[in-house]
Fold this protein.
Amino acid sequence: MPSEDSGINWADAADAAKSSWADQVEEEETVNGDLPPLSQSVVGDIKTVVEYKYNDDDKKVKVVRKYRIETQKTSKSVAHRKLLKKFGKSANDLSGPNRATTIISEDVQMQFVSTREEEMMQEQEDPTLSKFKHQLQYYMFFKNFKATAPKDKTAEEEKKPEEENASNAPSKYVPPSMRSGGNTVGSSMPSGRGNRDEQATIRVTNLSEETKESDLQELFKPFGPLQRIYLAKDKHTQQSKGFAFINFYNRDDAAKAIKSVCGFGYDHLILNVEWAKPSTPSTS
Amino acid sequence: MRPLMLQGHERAITQIRYNREGDLLFTVAKDATPNVWYTINGERLGTYDGHRGTVWSVDVNWDSTKVLTGAADLSCKLWDCETGKVINTWDTKSSVRSSNFSYCGNMINFTTDRQMKHEPKICIYDIREPSDSEPALSFVIDTKEMSKPMCSLWGALNEYLITGHDDGTMAHWDLKVGGELLHSVREHTALIKDMQLSSDQMMLITASKDKTAKLFDAPSLNLMKTYKTDRPVNSAAISPIRDHVVLGGGQEAMDVTTSNLKEGKFDARFFHLVFEEEFGRVKGHFGPINSLAFHPNGNSYSSGGEDGFVRVHQFDESYFDFQFEC
């Protein structure tokens, strides 16, 4: 029990304790128990609108919205139109956008699609291709060199067009989604040059749902360069189905991967890795 | 960019149009109520109440005083832009498909559908004359010879009318002589859904169900460019400030199987005007895009979709900085 002469004015303290807005709202309520009215205030160029309402759980909620007021210089006719009285279904609207009709949507970015960029990326990502290109050059060079000596010059000239031909051989890059005859949902690496060494494909199963292509890349790249990673995803929800196909360039690398990763614990599940069965021509 | 989503219609959008100064956006849909919005913040100015059926087309005159709408309730109405009142109604025998003001704003044209044994008609009225007067020009298109017109545009200096038809034909009609067919070309293989002029009216772009959009020289109807996509194109527009065109489309709502509704997967595709190559896509709509329009200053564009939403996009820096590498 508080003593009478403690020096604390309990009445004042009680008033101070009522500083929470919920109590203020209780006080401001009108006789029939309605919510306090909408209020607006403008300070500088910020307009604040305070609204009280009941949310889905029937709790009283205070919603504060801040708007910045912008002033724009426009032509007379545009300015005149901005001050028009609203009509039709908007006749009863307040000034400013009505939230029922105007919503600020989520951020979207323009996705820049460029076929050239993809072609260049393709060339860079492929260390073994440049190795092959060099080998091809040397082969052609010496092949021609072996013939009569004067052909030296032509051999060099031939080398250059070979180089360019090799790099032009992949025809214009077609994004996987637009390629015919293949369901490549989930494919993350370019795979334009046909001949995907079927002998070096492994299937990984019992993947967790959160596993992404980048995780698979990190997991398997120590064993050798990867040609393609295909992570199976549900068409509608884009969630991982739990298995993936990994293509290596070398069968040996694939074999090493199977030995090492099979039985490996990854994100609370034990992975199963084995040789992939050859795929049928018609895909799902 | 954070697009404004305008939710004033209950059914699919059929057409959207900016006024000449770009501060107003007019949207019409299958729900019989044209809306007008301020483009600066997406605030709705008002609605034009009076039609009783799908409104297929809308146009506004150069000083934003009058609005013209054509609807499936067999009428074409002229409205006062600022108050929403009807100035005049023209009753027709079949649905009005496309309606346009001439450049000067004194004449209007509208085309009607082929319905209930009535052949499609093209009518031109002078709106300065009393409201019940006869059309300045009116002629019928015999569908045995030519398929029905889907969209129309006034040619430069009011000399001719350009129409796009159900089978992909485009025709020039001489307005001085009185409805004589000047010439027609058939570059598209399926129906033309939308035609829009460039800002200088020298070029026009057509969007067709044959999955392409084509750029034509307006006076001669010579085909200049073709933009290919993998879906029917419902609408196309030419940027007023850059060499870009935007295409929007998608399959009929009925053909689309249920897809993940969390993301709006239907996109507007941006092509380079001259090189005919796609360089950008903007997602967001939950249904096929039915109408596209660039803001007259080229800094923003809007799209209206089958989902009933109109999305107003303000371009980012990245769009303006983008240089097409060739």
